[in-house]
UniProtKB/TrEMBL annotation:
Organism: Acetohalobium arabaticum (strain ATCC 49924 / DSM 5501 / Z-7288)
Protein name: NH(3)-dependent NAD(+) synthetase
Domain NAD/GMP synthase: 9-235
Residue positions binding Mg(2+): D36, E139
Family according to the record: Belongs to the NAD synthetase family.
UniProt subunit comment: Homodimer.
Purpose: Catalyzes the ATP-dependent amidation of deamido-NAD to form NAD. Uses ammonia as a nitrogen source.
Residues that coordinate or bind deamido-NAD(+): R114, K147, D154, H231, K232
Amino acid sequence: MRYYDELSEKLSQWIKEQILEAGCKGAVVGLSGGIDSAVTAVLCKQAFPDSTLGLIMPCYSSPEDSEDAELVADKFGIEVETVDLNQTFDILYAELEDDDRAEDNMAVANIKPRLRMTVLYYYAANLNRLVVGTDNRSELEVGYFTKHGDGGVDIAPLGNLVKTEVRQLAKYLEIPERIITKPPTAGLWSDQTDEAELGITYEELDRYILTGEAEPEVKERIENLVAQNEHKLGYPPTPEF
């Protein structure tokens, strides 16, 4: 586990350097109850023991997600605030023209991470801190995040680690086992899981990212995801004239 010991130290130091270079005093991170946010929050706590804030932001989410977020915060002594976004979501949605409130309507579902992004930046601005993102390399490679939602962050310390590497780092950090083993989800709707939405497993995706090897149908699916989400993967296009 020496590799992950060194990796943990390097990532915590990188977070500290990035935040201090920006003239800020600490970190704000969304605690979703998932493995990526747990690892990110613990690394931030190592970097800024007295100025790391975890935000729990339920928005028609599973109660278990908030419980798991609290579990991580309690175990590692992370300061937390809970901002319930249910009513905020309802008020905003009531003002929109589309009355088809299908739970799995992506336009509707993406309101949730964008509301959370707004809350994260509110706290970060008030506290003179940076918003630390939780996206990993697997998600970033194929654009599996909500534009201006969970993709709206200042730094992404897990951005060079595929999901399987994040799991190994989580084990080293002693993240609670139930968080490590539960199916990854963005919490966009009931019973939503990342792998069902991606159409492939993280193991398949990670293998392709790290080795370039995959079954033909897996490779095709990954290439389609990249093409579909290309607009998320860089700065907005601007004219050359």
